[in-house]
Amino acid sequence: APLSERLKGTTMPVMIIAGAHDPLAPPEESKAILKARPDARFEFLPGSGHYPMLEEPKVVAKLIAGLVKEI
Question: For every one of its 71 residues, what pLDDT tens digit does the chain have, with 9 covering 90 and above?
């Protein structure tokens, strides 16, 4: 099942980190998850591709740390 379908019944916090230059999972596809989980956080990284955790590790770490603080 698509990720958006699997997330519908979950209660865990969800954050989507999308790279603007991702040819495998364009941001438009990532936004589809928001329909299943409108409470999800959507973070758009204009300087990243498919691997934002490798391309912008400090930015991604800060985003994840912020999410963890909210839990």
Answer: 677 788 887 888 889 999 999 988 887 788 788 888 888 899 999 999 999 999 999 999 999 999 999 88
Neighbours of 60 (CB within 10 A): 19
Who's near 17: CB < 8 A, 6+ residues apart?
43, 45, 52, 53, 60, 63
Q: Is the separation of the CB atoms in 46 and 20 below 8 Å?
A: yes
Residues 22, 49: contact at Cβ < 8 Å? yes
Three-state SS for 1-43 is CCHHHHHCCCCCCCEEEEECCCCCCCHHHHHHHHHHCCCCEEE
Q: Which of 71, 68, 27 has the alpha carbon at shortest distance from 48?
A: 27
